[in-house]
Amino acid sequence: MCSVLARRPHQMRANVTHQGRTKHKMRDIAQANDSLARNPACSIQSRKVPCDFSSHMRHLVTFLFFLLSAGTAQPQGFDRTYNKSIQPSLSQPLLWVSAPSVAAPSLPKAFATNPDAWAFAPYTASTALPTSVGRDVWVRFTLAASPTAQSWIVRIPRLTIQKVSLYNLEANGFEPVQSAGALIAHNAWNRATRTPSFEVVTSNIEKTYFLRFEHHSPVTERPELMSQTDFADGAGRIGTLLGLMLGMFGMLMMACAAAFAVARNTVFISLAAFVTAILLHYLVQMGFGGWRIWPNSVYLNQAMRWTAPLMAMAACCWFFAHATHAKDISKSVYRLLSLVALVSLGLGLFRLIGIDQMPRNFLNGWAAFVLLIIVSSLLWLSLRGMRGNFWLLAGLLPIAAAAASRLAYSFGWLAHIEFALVASVFLTQIGLGWLFVALVWRSRAALLSSELAAALNNSDAATGLIRERVALTRLPQMLRRATQLKSGCGVIMLRWHNYAQLMSTLSAEKQNAMLKQLGLVLHRVARDIDTAARMGDNQFMILVEGPISRSTLTSLSTQILTACIRSSDKFRLPNAFNFHIAIWQATLVPVSADEVTEALKTRLNQMSFGTKRPVQFVDAASSDVSAEPHQEFTQRRDDLVAKIDAIEALPSVRAVLTP
Question: What is the rounded average pLDDT of the residues 255-262?
């Protein structure tokens, strides 16, 4: 399903050397047999000159090894995607021959006239089709006769190829039936798949087909012959893998974005860029890097085949340069990782512009070098005292294993890329998930400190109430909501009348205790949707969300006064909490926040000259300004407490108050 990179050239040379050594050994065996025939004395029955039994066993093992190697070098059929895949029988196995591209138009007629004119070679497991600019490769195979017509799929497991065509041998020569590749748009292929795929049909007679490969570099992939069911199962598996991959990588990117929004740590942005680059790399490897709408769309996938992993290498180096705190621990390691990231990014952009300018072995070597640099840097930084980098190294190991599997397949050491692709996707996801958890765990202290700083910045330390600037920000929003929804709202402003004189006579511990008690009182009275704030040393405000009625606002003010009276008795200071309360209730006439606060402050200033009513609405007439005798104030206070106690003593009220 993914493109296969070029195998090592020394593998083909090793096969030739091995065959030569086997011939020499067989010649030695023949010479030994001749000498044994000329010297009958050296036999099993001879007791005078014993035969060297170990030498014969060595010769026997060599002969069996020759038979085994000869059997593996025999022409093979099509490759199998899965071990249990069924295939039709072949009358003739796969054979191949190289021919000049300019001779292609005359080849069908020449082959029809003289089929033995082409010197076909066997297509073995180690065969690399030597396609190049100016030379094509023709692959021939013959399907055996079958009682019923059956449809099969010939698939070329290579994402990027210039052009491959399927020819059918008829009485009058070759007949081109299907073509696919980079020179043809995907929608013009016989099957709109990610890799070139053709359909062949068996009949009651043998049918001979030819595959013509037109490419600029050797093709190491062997064609696959599969049934329609296996072809559909493969498409379903790759679709399932694509869905799981997009879902897992998408969730990880959203988690990185959420972590950055909470912690404001740029390392999560680096991790999100790393995840995005790896996702792009896997999409390209699975064949989803082209647009599929123009004839050269496969070139886009071919260019991104190494551009995407190079960008992933650059993002990986940049991420670990920041996540490991390399800039603070070792400037040289930080510069090395940054340099490798910049070089990888530059190579990726150059590869995007010049597709055929860099050999594959160089790119494979660079990938191995980058992987070695990152692992070595993590080990060095961990041993230098940053033990937390060992957790990052544990997350890098699965990603390194996935990259190593890709390198092994690129060099030809791994055969089945389908299973390697699935394993690499899940290994990479495990590694990235581990890195995210490690970063969250490592930044938990910074996260808690940032949350604490935000809470201290928005809350008053003495009372625990919201600060003035937050209340002044929420007040216009509350008024706007009340106007749009046509629901009433209210604002309660309190002034501690004898605050300065009282605090000057108390110790610091008692001042903190009284302020904390007042904060608890206002928090207890305010609802979850309301906002209780401290507007100054002796002024407080409660923003009451609507809908709210006038009687409810009065009841809230009465609860505040009653709780303050009981708190005064708790501190054994009868006149400790002496408050004047001004209430504003929203009307249908729109007003601004400044007008509301100005009206409340004006009413509190009027009440400061003396009043018999400590709770007043700003739209009501103020009480007569006159000094209230101390005895009258004490009597009124005792009457209010007695009324509240009588109300709370009622059975119905007690049932509600007592859980």
Answer: 86
